[in-house]
Design goal:
Elements: H1 26-33
Length: about 60
């Protein structure tokens, strides 16, 4: 069984469809979008999911 992940907003590519993503990768993705530092001891990996973002930078916010 697979879940469905919908994302919309200025950080995400428009009309972009992907195959399966891992739920554990959503946490580091959201941490990047909200400009917070994720915990170090997680299994999620931003590199596996960041391709759905328009840009990979800090989204114009100070680091």
């Amino acid at each position: 069984m697979h879940g469905i992940f919908f994302a919309s907003g200025p950080q995400f590519k428009s009309n972009y469809k992907v195959g399966t993503i891992l739920n554990i990768d959503i946490y580091p993705l959201l941490a990047k979008i909200f400009n917070i530092t994720p915990r170090a001891n997680i299994d999620g990996n931003l590199e596996r999911i960041e391709f759905i973002l328009k840009i990979k930078e800090n989204f114009g916010r100070p680091a």
